[in-house]
Each structure stands twice: as structure tokens, then as C-alpha cells.
Write a structure and sequence with these properties.
single chain; 426 residues; 2 domains; 16% strand
């Protein structure tokens, strides 16, 4: 039901994903004004022809504002004509409706709310106050100097009924305008929160919103995983830019999903390289195991993609994966274009694990091996020379240990017993 309502509102006023806040507000308020004027004309149908036609004509003009704004995107150019139209209507309506002795002047209040709400720049906000203030003062001055120009009520009872109905409707209309504003602001807040959470972990985003900065934190045990496509340049040369981006996007979206399911935090993509880390921003003792499990799943995804590409006689990428565990500093630095990042020698070593690896293999350092050796079957490669790091103990991780699986690949409950033992020690 809620989804249906959201679809209907998106069709009427514009999809929040593509329409700016002020555009949606203009669409909503212009349509509300049109409906209110058409509805209000009914009470004057037989007794006050001027007010009847005033409501009908301005209702049509409000509807035209809505149609041009909703389907032509002309809302910015319509701002001043729209506000002037509101005030002209209210001024004429008030003069012919007993002035301050009636209730029509109550609508000057929601008119100001509308004008200020739709104003998007400082000068238009000032103009909104003036546009609303001048007719209001003019109405009271005119009533004081020329009271006979106001169409008086026929009786005290008629005046009471008019004042009461106008006050209630003005109150109701103002409430709707504020509700529309609050709802749209809520949508904008959710949208901005969603975008922020796509860039930063939730706890980091909350800290940034609360304090305007994030203090980088030291973590004693974090595992960093790097991936890189083998022969990327050669294959990329045979693809159009659009095909290349689409292919990378498809792979990295799958990597994102895998990382999320294994409690890893995606850090960034660098060209055709993908970087994620376990154990941040919430520290844990399972990060090395989590990274290896994620690496297995990424490797399976790429193997399945290779089979598909071969069947279509298309080139395919192979992948190197490298993991290293150690201390890092993680956080956000700078004032613009925030990005959650990690620093330290652990990151450099993890990168060397990837570049010193072999296609379709998971290459881990000795430090990571010590953390995962009770879970996975590993092959010692010996000491391998890594650029700027000298010789480092490296291991290929081939599979979950046979006694911890029930079908040669999927973890057995014994695997989770060991895993849960780690989490219970946290």
C-alpha cells in the first residue's frame, strides 16, 4: 500500500530520485492551490459571482503553473509569477470578503510560508517577505481609509460562519503545506544519508554528522585484501569505453555484495584494482578468515564468469588476490570529498601480496597464514621477493580444511564452531 502511494506521489509531483526538492515542492503546492481554489469556488456559486469567477480563473492559472512545472520543468521561471498570483488572488478575495472582518486575510499567513519555502536564494527570500507584506499592509490601510470598499457581511451570524470556516481552512491548509515540506525534507534527508552511507561506514557517517570531523583510529589487527585483473590492458584495448565500464561495474558490484556479506568494508577501487578490509570500523578477531572466505567467493564468481565468456567466445579477465593482516590507521582526513581510508605498512604489504601472486590464486602473507591456518588448506611458497619489501613468507590458500567441510567446499558446523570461538573471545 505504501509503495503504491509512493508511486502515485512520484507520478503527481516528481520522483525524488530525479526531481530536486524545490521542484517537487513547487509541483505539490501549485496543484494544492489549484484544488483549493476550485473547491473554494463552490461556496460562491450562487451568491457571489465575482468570488466564484475569481476562484475559477486563479484555479486554472495555478493548474497551468503545475502543468508547466511538472512536465516542462519551468518551476524556477514561474516562482515570481506564482507568488504574485497568490497575493493578487488573496488581496482581491479579501477586499470582496469583508476585509479583516471576514476570514480571507488568514490566508496571508500560509501564502508567506509558501513564498519563503519555494524561495531558493537569499534575494528571493527577501522578495517573498516584501511581496507578502505589501498587499497585507495595503489591505489594512485601505480598510482604515476606505472601509466602504469592503463588502460587508449581511449579518453577525454570516460573519461568524465566514471567519470560522476561513480560519479552520487556513489552519488546515497551512498544516498541509508544512506536512508536504516535512515529507519532502525527510525524503531529501534519507537520500543524503543513503549517499553518505555509500561513501562511509555507518558509524563513521554518524560521527561526521555529529562533529563535522572523524578522528582516525588505530587498529591492531586488520586484514586488507587487494584484487587486480591480469591482462587488463590487453583486453581493455579491444573494448569500447562503454563496454569496459559496464564490465568493471558488473564485477565490482558483485565484489561489493560479497564484501558486505563477509563483514568487509570496501575501501576503494583504483583503476581495475579493488580494495577492501576486515576488522574496521568495528574491530574483530575474525577479519582474516572473513577476507579469505570473501576471496574464495570472488574467485568462484570470476571462474563462473570465465566459463560464460568462453562459451560466448569472448575475452575474459583472470584475477590475482592478495591478503595481509596487521595494524592500520583508519579514518577520514580533509574537509572535502570525504573518503574512508586506511594507512600503514599493512596496506603496502597487502598490495605486494596481490602483485606477487598468481592468477586465480589467493596469495596471503605469513601474518595472515598464522590467523587462518586452522581453517584453510594452505601451501607455503617459501620466501618470495616483493618490491620494496624484500623477501616475505607467502602462502597460497587452496580450500577449507577437509575435516571442516561437508561437501569439499561449503563449511561444516565444525568450521563455525571454530569461527564462533574467535567471535566469543572478542
Amino acid at each position: 500500500m505504501q509503495e503504491r502511494l509512493n508511486r502515485l506521489l512520484a507520478q503527481l509531483f516528481g520522483d525524488p530520485r530525479t526531481f530536486l526538492l524545490e521542484h517537487r515542492l513547487f509541483n505539490t503546492i501549485s496543484l494544492l492551490n489549484a484544488i483549493a481554489n476550485f473547491g473554494g469556488s463552490l461556496q460562491y456559486l450562487t451568491k457571489q459571482p465575482f468570488l466564484f469567477y475569481l476562484h475559477i480563473v486563479t484555479g486554472i492559472l495555478f493548474l497551468l503553473c503545475y502543468l508547466f512545472a511538472r512536465f516542462r520543468g519551468s518551476y524556477r521561471r514561474l516562482y515570481y509569477p506564482f507568488v504574485f498570483l497568490i497575493m493578487a488572488f488573496l488581496y482581491a478575495n479579501t477586499l470582496d470578503n469583508a476585509g479583516s472582518m471576514g476570514g480571507a486575510h488568514y490566508f496571508f499567513i500560509p501564502a508567506l510560508v509558501i513564498a519563503v519555502t519555494l524561495a531558493v536564494q537569499g534575494h528571493s527570500t527577501i522578495a517573498a517577505f516584501l511581496i507578502c507584506l505589501i498587499p497585507t499592509l495595503a489591505m489594512f490601510v485601505l480598510e482604515y481609509l476606505k472601509p466602504t470598499m469592503m463588502t460587508a457581511h449581511a449579518s453577525p451570524n454570516e460573519r461568524l460562519l465566514d471567519v470560522a470556516s476561513n480560519f479552520i481552512f487556513a489552519q488546515f491548509f497551512t498544516g498541509i503545506v508544512v506536512l508536504v515540506l516535512a515529507r519532502n525534507l525527510n525524503q531529501e534527508r534519507k537520500k543524503s544519508d543513503r549517499l553518505l552511507l555509500n561513501v562511509l561506514p555507518e558509524s563513521i557517517a554518524e560521527e561526521l554528522k555529529r562533529t563535522d570531523r572523524v578522528v582516525p583510529l588505530h587498529y591492531d589487527s586488520v586484514s586488507v585484501v587487494f584484487t587486480d585483473f591480469v591482462g587488463f590492458t590487453n583486453i581493455a584495448e579491444k573494448m569500447t569505453a562503454e563496454e569496459l565500464i559496464a564490465e568493471l561495474d558488473s564485477c565490482f558490484r558483485s565484489f561489493d555484495d560479497i564484501a558486505r556479506r563477509h563483514q568487509l568494508e570496501k575501501i576503494k577501487t583504483i583503476g581495475d584494482s579493488y580494495m577492501a578490509a576486515g576488522g574496521i570500523p568495528t574491530a574483530n578477531k575474525t577479519n582474516a578468515v572473513d577476507c579469505v572466505l570473501a576471496a574464495f567467493e570472488i574467485a568462484r564468481f570470476m571462474a563462473e564468469l570465465k566459463i560464460k565468456k568462453e562459451s560466448e567466445n569472448k575475452p575474459f579477465w583472470q584475477l590475482r588476490l592478495g591478503i595481509h593482516s596487521g595494524a592500520v590507521v583508519a579514518g577520514v582526513i580533509g574537509d572535502e570529498k570525504f573518503a574512508y581510508d586506511v594507512w600503514g605498512d599493512t596496506v603496502n604489504t597487502a598490495s605486494r601480496m596481490e602483485s606477487s601472486g598468481v592468477a586465480d590464486q589467493i596469495n596471503v602473507s605469513g601474518a595472515t597464514y598464522e590467523l587462518v591456518k586452522d581453517f584453510f588448506l594452505c601451501e607455503h611458497r617459501g620466501k618470495v621477493k616483493a618490491k620494496n619489501k624484500g623477501e616475505i613468507d607467502m602462502y597460497f590458500v587452496h580450500a577449507i580444511l577437509p575435516h571442516l567441510t561437508h561437501d569439499g567446499r561449503a563449511p561444516h558446523e565444525k568450521f563455525y564452531e571454530l569461527y564462533n570461538r574467535l567471535t566469543s573471545d572478542q
